Amino acid sequence: MLTLDLAVENQKYRISQLSAEKEPGLGPECMRQLFELGFIKGESVMLLRRTMPGSDPMVVRVGTSTFALRRAEARTIGVEMVQA
Predict the structure, then answer these.
(1) SS3 call for 79
(2) pLDDT mean by block of 10 residues, the chain; 84 residues
(3) What is the distance between the alpha carbons of residues 6 and 19, in angstroms, rounded to a whole number?
(4) CATH class of the domain comprising 4-81
(5) Does the pTM of the predicted model rise above 0.90?
């Protein structure tokens, strides 16, 4: 499964799942916060920019809102590419 931290910049994706299993340091509270920000299954999402060095944080658009996410948070968001 492709996760948001590995997404191609400026490519449209759709969120397929949220899962903290790959990031043991992130618990249910982080998942709740992402959900409240709009990171929900089926929502459109796009990686706008990676910052340097280390690509942390990342600039992400979900729906019509733009946020900065840590790579660890982005790894919890499964995505599927949307064909134009």
Answers:
(1) strand
(2) 93 92 75 92 95 84 94 92 86
(3) 15
(4) mainly beta
(5) no
